[in-house]
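Morning F.,

Quick status update on the modeling queue. The single chain you submitted on Monday has been processed. Sequence for confirmation:
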Amino acid sequence: MRKRDYLGGGLFPALVFFAALLLILIPALPSFSAPQPGEGRAVARVLVGFRSAPGGGELQALRSAVEGLLPGLTSWEGPELVLPKVARLRLPEVPDLTRLKETLSSLSFTAFVEDDHVVRISATPNDPHYGEQWHLPSVSAPQAWDITTGSSGVTIAVVDTGVDYTHPDLKGKCLPGYNFVDRSSDPMDDHGHGTHVAGIAAAVGNNSTGVAGVDWKARILPVKVLDAQGSGYDSDVAAGIRYAADHGAKVINLSLGSPDYSYTLEEAVNYAYNQGAVVVAASGNSGSSVNYPAACDRAIAVGALDSGDKLAYFSCQGPEIDLVAPGVSILSTLPGSYGKMSGTSMASPVVAGCASLVLAANPAYSPAQVKKALEAGATDLGPTGFDNGYGNGKVNAYAALGTGAPEPAPEPEPEPEPSPDDDTWKPPEPGGEKVWYLAEGYTGPGFQTYVLVQNPNDQEARLRAEYVDPGGGYKEEYYSLAAHCRLTLNLNAIFPDREVSTCISSQNDVGVVVERSMYFDSGGRSDGHCASGSPGLSNTWYFAEGYTGAGFDEYILVLNPWFNSSHARLTFYDEAGNEQAYDYWLLPASRLTVHVNELAPGKNVSAKVETSYASVAERAMYFDYNGRKGGHCALGSPEPSNNLFFAEGYTGAGFDEWLLLFNPSDSDRTATVNYRFTDGSQMQANYVVRARRRFSVHVNREAPDRELAIKVSCGGDGLVAERAMYFDYRGMWDGGHCTGGATSPAERWDLAEGYTGPGFETWILIQNTSAYESADIRLAVMGNTGMSSPRAYQLSPGSRTTIYLNEITTQGDTSVTIYSTNGVPVIVERAMYFDCNGRDGGSVNMGCRRN
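Structure tokens below.
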């Protein structure tokens, strides 16, 4: 997960100073055929996943496919199973790696094909002179040793560069291991990193020699997967994880990583977890998003602290961070000596050692219970509660031993049961934002446009609404919105017969939530769409969805709210790798409307909008898709993301669902898509999204006739994702809707729009993304005059549920606030299907979570 860095807080600084505004189009030469980074490589390492454990027939078919495509291949290695359902291929010469991967992906038994990425240690050498082990008292290890110093019945696997098993502080406790680099039974460390890691976790204590580990008595299983330079491959790491789990390791430490997502590593972590092993991994040292395998769902991701309990400058951050631990100038064992190193590589074995102490005191604990004990005992640092830098806080060995037995996750439940009598309402934080921008809007013939404002907080909000049109027209109005109430602004009455952009701002710093709904009957297409406002401005906006073929009209809307003129560049990317760029000038307070069909006709296209001054961009599409006539609109994404979530989804009769992926980077990316169903079950698929291209997934083909939620994961710089659905709802209302993915789950969500009167059906979709914990949810409906009694729900781990709002509230305008009472974050969307004054269709929108 990457942080959003786009601007917020500015209003319309130019609105009242300019009258007539102009838009100047400057054609730019289009560029075509972005280079494919995989072509022309001399050596290829490829991982192939199978839908089920392969037999000899599938392995031979895989080998035949490779040799059929590369008939001149003289010698190569594979397929070699590194996991029960993952095989490795090592090929000496591949003139067209892209074609090879596409061919292998088309085989009937193939689940995914991905590169065997390079992984590296996550440490930086430091001052080699002897020093104190400040990290042990920092995590209250001496107090923990009064309870337990560990147990030889617990084995910590160090999956790394190997371990110097002859070291005075390690010998006698190292078990026979394996070397996956040289394919030998000798895991001797030829780098030093793995020995340092092993000593931090479990060097012998109280032996009058050298240093002490967090756990004095645990056995060490050395598994060498990295070479003398500290580098290796996903396949060897995965094989090492499997080896450790199969040889009795109860804790597996991974002080290594890569920015690239690997389905193979995720499978290996899941395998170890299911074997009862706690997997602890270093978050990475780039200071950016969390590396893999630390970012895998079932790994404990660890960041690094300095001696002042401040987050180390190099420590990677994101919602995947679970804990932090000391990681700067850590003294530990080195081959034949001692020395200091720094990195999240050093922080991870501190947590691994603490996990081992918890297991020594509680041998029957599951991996989930160990993780819960560590998090419950953690010392909160940084902002109160969980945050993306410090996670749940600094690990505390003593407190983790005293937290008591965590309750295991309950069995999955098919549907949440409401408890209307529980009217507790204590959200974890205020809701909403102080400024909102809406680029799109039209109040001319055939269109009805509304702006919906929710005040989900306990205080009255005093609001200013500003409206601007492309001709320089400006209007300003003020409103008061009581606590827990909703306001509906009819733009046709306020600013009639024009294109209009809007800014809503709070004048007393009380946050609000803003959406815009438009109902239309235009060009033979009747429907409605809804989009969230943007609480900030950005210099770059991305759109994954877009189509300009027969029956579709696509528009991109860009709002420049500043004093200054702004340069804008729109670049379109298709599935074949072609690019087309066009330049525009926007004078102050201008809105630009671009009809994409005129620039990139007849294509599936993704788009990027770049502006010299921060802006807001939306995309609207109007269509006749297989007889379903309507339209949808979506706010752009200010940046790609490593994780994207969708709560809504249906592939049954009358619905077509599409997942649109856009890779704006210069390197191919593998998107791992997790389809999660209402009963908590799930399935996964991998798709290779080429550099600077768009990729379409027809979800009906992947998971037919299901209600489902989706998670998209990707390494590197991430992807942009949207989900579009076209429908014939109940045989009455046809149309389509589209939304971008949420970049992370959250404990609180707000939805300004909603209506439960005649002709409307409003649904709330909630996905619990946690694989281990139930989410306890409160939901309250807010109308024009106040808030109804909250309702309580429980979502079992990994489950998705649908709440029909019409059944739980009186008819009328409704806003909704949802929050988790037990801190388990969720994803929330709202879907509406309607016949609004003869305009039938549907809309969808992701909830608003506080930034």
